[in-house]
Amino acid sequence: MISYLIQGLIVSVAISVTLETLARNYVAILVPGDLGYVILVSVFAPLIEEFTKVFPLLFRHAETEKSIVKLGLLAGLGFGIAEFAVYVWVLGAPVAIRFPEMLFHASNAAIVAYGIAKHRFTGFYLLAVGLHFVNNFSTFFGDIWYFVGIPTFAFSYYLAWTCFSKSSDSFLK
Predict the structure, then answer these.
(1) C-beta of residue 164 within 8 angstroms of C-beta of residue 65
(2) Using CA atoms, how far apart are residues 153 and 19, in angstroms rounded to an integer?
(3) What residues are paired with 171 via a beta bridge?
(4) What is the CA radius of gyration of the chain?
(5) Mind listing the pLDDT tens digit for each residue in 59-79?
(6) Does residue 145 contact residue 55 with C-beta atoms inside 8 Å?
(7) Measured torsion, CA atoms of residues 89, 73, 120, 15, in degrees rounded to the nearest 10
(8) Fewer CB within 10 Å: N-end or C-end of the chain?
(9) What are the distances in angstroms from CA 136 to CA 42, 62, 159?
(10) Distance of CA 140 to CAs 4, 19, 21, 41, 165, Å?
């Protein structure tokens, strides 16, 4: 299990940074300026990050649904820890804002992992991407984020808990 935390911390972050750098280069050419940045942060980051966090789970076999959700949560937590460290220790962001974001990454990865376990990856992936989009996009509106981002976090936490509760101890089919 610890390997999935480390995978999220190192591998998922490295792949995300690479893909987001490529996306940034293309978006800057196609949509220069602030709108390009909004598109990158609101659209491309959620699409890339929600996929890279759970990518290794797509190839897991002989696992229970519950164990897949746990592994997704751990990979997302690893990713969130890395992002937390950069934002707090390098960029000086407040811990009170970034800590719930770290848990948000874990929750969203658990949601997508549940989709993998239930063989409904696309729907749950798009749900996590949508939550991530709402959170990221709301940050462009200043204090409005508190009224949109925080409830988005809470909803993600609730969905992750629901997915975990509904997952079974039976092995994947």
Answers:
(1) no
(2) 25
(3) 64
(4) 16
(5) 877 689 999 999 999 999 999
(6) no
(7) 40
(8) C
(9) 5, 35, 18
(10) 32, 22, 20, 10, 34
